[in-house]
Amino acid sequence: MTAVKKHVFVCTGGKLVGDAKGMCHTRNSTALVRKLMEEIDERELSGDIMVSAVSCFGICDKGPVACVYPEGIWYGRLNADAIEQIAEEHLEGGNPVAEYQI
Fold first, then answer.
1. Whole-model pTM?
2. Residue 1 forms part of a structural domain
């Protein structure tokens, strides 16, 4: 595996036991993971950016939630437009998007 520049963790609202039922899941976070992966591919950033779906961050009231490392920037209340803006401005351009930060 090559070293990546950024790693994006996206909550999918799963729980350790049982079915995915969390707030992020009910707000379609799995589709947002796919959208983010598409945005990264379209921008030819797949060698620099890794995306991982995670089960639950525990801050459901702000969901869907994502975190970008190594900066430790947290985003919440995500939707398809937010994902596109974060991909363009933060992941590609290097400027975190204040509007969605939590």
1. 0.91
2. no
